[in-house]
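For reproducibility, we list the full input for the 3-methyl-2-oxobutanoic acid complex.
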Amino acid sequence: MSVQQNEKVTRVTIPKLQERARSGEKLVMLTCYDASFARISEEAGVDMLLVGDSLGMVVQGQDSTLAVTVAETEYHVRCVVRGSQRAIVIADMPFGSFQESPAQAFHNSARMIAAGAHMVKLEGGATMTETTRFLVERGIPVCAHIGLTPQSVNTLGGYRVQGKQEDAAAKLVADAKALESAGAAIILMEAMPAAVAKRVTESLAVPTIGIGAGPDVSGQVLVNYDILDIFPGRKARFVKNFLEGAPSVKAAIEAYVKAVKDKTYPGPEHSF
Ligand code: KIV
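The corresponding predicted structure, in tokenized form, follows.
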């Protein structure tokens, strides 16, 4: 038997991640769309690989995330699962695949779980409470996504920072609490003032993952094409190029992991 066959790599579990967050360790999530990046990302120490619907923009070249399909996400989930052994793989449910009813959400989420995902991510606040409960009670772990929800770009009027006024901030806290009560295992928060993300995090027992939500959250997520400066165009304030000064792509991902774990990313210049 070879050395490789002797080595048993165990996949991180969601309760284990929650425990690590409770003990104060920062969690690291990164988007990922293929097997090669899955392998080097987890070797670099990434805890969770998000097959984000950002694939519509960074891989497919579309100008929003709205046209990504269930079949496309399912294909990329299979690729990422094949390339990974340790990280939790999260499938980002595409626009139109879960909003209609809990039954529709279960049907499409079950396809992601069958493709190998360990969790699904649903954009939306308290309106997703019933669906979240329905999925969790039927064995599908849920990561909720609140704040700037890019699938709602047309109703939000653009990719804007959310929760700037007190009533909107209070609603974000209420949304997060409702989703936690419904069974969400992780709450992802995008583009909101750091003080609001801190308030949400302090009101919950489950971990929070931020993107443009400041440092006072349980962990961070970024788009891998952004940290490697591959995606062209205007960069969001929270984006940091970790390839700068790094000798390889893997070293850049390691630098991202280290910066999240030792709390040097995000700095005030990346926060709202
Ligand atoms: O699709 C995606 O990449 C995401 C992250 C930005 C959180 O949802």
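The domain at 26-270 is CATH 3.20.20.60 (TIM Barrel). The mean pLDDT is 96. Both points were considered when choosing residues for closer inspection.
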